[in-house]
Fold:
Amino acid sequence: MAKIEKFEDIEAWKAAREITNLIYQVSSNGNFGKDFALVNQIRRASISIISNIAEGFERNGDREFIQFLTIAKGSCGEVRAQLYIALDQNYIDEKQFIFITGKLIEISRMLSGLMKYLQQSEFKGSKFK
Structure:
């Protein structure tokens, strides 16, 4: 694995940034944009993904980073669950649903891979040097 010097280097963070922008786009349209409770919740959950990756990385310890990655992974599931609500309410169509959930599943896989790598790594974070 390439050396990661800042959280912006993390592929899962880059993907989370894209998904957050996508969630903002789809939740601004039509009746979706008028469902303030769902809009607020789905946006907050997508923000949680990108934010927890960044915050965990900046903690400079693998155990803490893994904990924050776990929260980010949970937030991926939360956004996916909320997308089902958006689909059921006809706020998004099937094509949008499949595309966005596919991206979220991929982010979740990336996070799982990163957590596994960190758990097996001998490096425990710069604050333990």
Notes: The mean pLDDT is 93. The first helix runs from residue 11 to 26. The radius of gyration is 16 Å.
